[in-house]
Write a structure and sequence with these properties.
Length: 335
């Protein structure tokens, strides 16, 4: 019988056999996975658990918070604050950083997350998820402040997401490729279901919110226009389109069968670089995609090389199958 590998065993092997991760990081990832399991339970209960609907509050980005945004945020904080593996946390749903209270030991890692991605899909029973990024606390730093979090994405030591869909799937990288784990609800554990995930370099499927077309910049307009011309246009092939409106679910599809995802800068809010947030949406996804052989840029630069200046800063995102991402990126330099 094929051996069944739990997340715990996978992480122990990454630590002990391959020496890829320290013990504290293994504990951190186990705790994040446990938190995702309980968020998954809450998501599954839906209306029966009273978790749907608005919370009648706004986050720092001026977005109305859903009950589940707040529940997921609390679950992640409560699960992670006491274990001694973290110095601080940052979340889409919290204005300021969360410093681990003094009553708990402080660890050497920083955890950043989008507790619930795809909020507009919660009430309509469409896939949503949690996205997370792990950084190391800068050395010789005694107090934790926002500046400690402002590291570029290339500094991440772990990144992942958990998608709550027909299955609950945790997707993880510690810099040694991408692995996927499916939640076995009877056993209550994540089981390794795919290792060495690879995104094909070519694709005929794009994901973008087409309703914003009139606001796009020229390079994005040119790329999509060429896709839409299909077999009769310069690409000589037909393209398919998908837009779930949960980045986590769109990226998961790309991890599974390739594709390109774009949430570019547009003219609606010209002073903002994009809609998605760099530190806890774009960076972890960009690293996962690169680890699976794909690419991720903001049109001009590799996302992982962007030096953040603010915790909640936004970024234009183009990620997925390498050849397509490179094509859109090249359109930015030629136009
Ligand atoms: P969040 O729910 O964390 O605010 O993120 C939603 C994001 C992302 O998941 C998705 O790709 C995008 O917003 C959808 O935006 P539109 O509704 O503009 O298509
Ligand atoms: Mn999000
Ligand atoms: Mn969110």
């Amino acid at each position: 019988m094929a051996k069944r590998v739990s997340l715990t065993r996978y992480l122990v092997e990454q630590q002990r056999v391959d020496g890829l991760i320290p013990g504290q990081l293994r504990l951190l990832l186990e705790v994040v996975a446990r938190a995702c399991k309980s968020i998954s339970q809450a998501v599954n209960k839906g209306a029966l658990g009273g978790v749907l609907g608005s919370a009648d509050s706004e986050n720092v980005q001026g977005e109305v918070q859903k009950r589940l945004d707040i529940i997921a945020n609390e679950v992640l904080i409560e699960a992670n604050e006491w274990g001694g593996h973290l110095a601080g946390m940052a979340s889409e749903e919290m204005d300021a950083i969360y410093v681990v209270p003094n009553r708990y030991p402080k660890g050497e890692y920083l955890l950043l997350f989008d507790p619930l991605d795809g909020s507009s899909n919660i009430d309509v029973n469409v896939s949503i998820g949690t996205i997370f990024s792990v950084l190391r606390m800068p050395e010789d730093d005694r107090g934790v402040d926002e500046g400690d979090f402002l590291q570029n994405g290339a500094q991440q030591v772990a990144a992942g997401y958990c998608v709550y869909g027909p299955q609950t799937t945790l997707v993880l990288t510690v810099g040694d490729g991408v692995a996927m784990f499916t939640l076995d609800r009877e056993q209550g554990s994540f089981v390794l279901t795919q290792e060495n995930v690879r995104i094909p370099a070519d694709t005929q499927e794009f994901a973008i919110n087409m309703s914003n077309m009139r606001h796009w910049d020229e390079p994005v307009r040119r790329y999509i226009d060429e896709c839409l011309q299909g077999r009769d246009g310069p690409r000589n092939k037909d393209f398919n389109m998908r837009w779930i409106a949960s980045m986590v679910a769109d990226v998961h599809r790309i991890m599974t069968r390739g594709g390109i995802f774009m949430y570019p800068w547009d003219k609606r809010e010209p002073n903002k670089p994009g809609k998605l947030r760099l530190m806890y949406e774009a960076n972890p996804m960009a690293w996962l995609v690169e680890q699976a052989g794909g690419a991720a840029t903001n049109g001009r630069q590799r996302i992982l090389d962007i030096q953040p200046t603010q915790l909640h800063e936004r970024v234009s995102v183009i990620l997925g199958s390498k050849n397509e991402v490179e094509r859109v990126t090249s359109y930015h330099s030629t136009l």
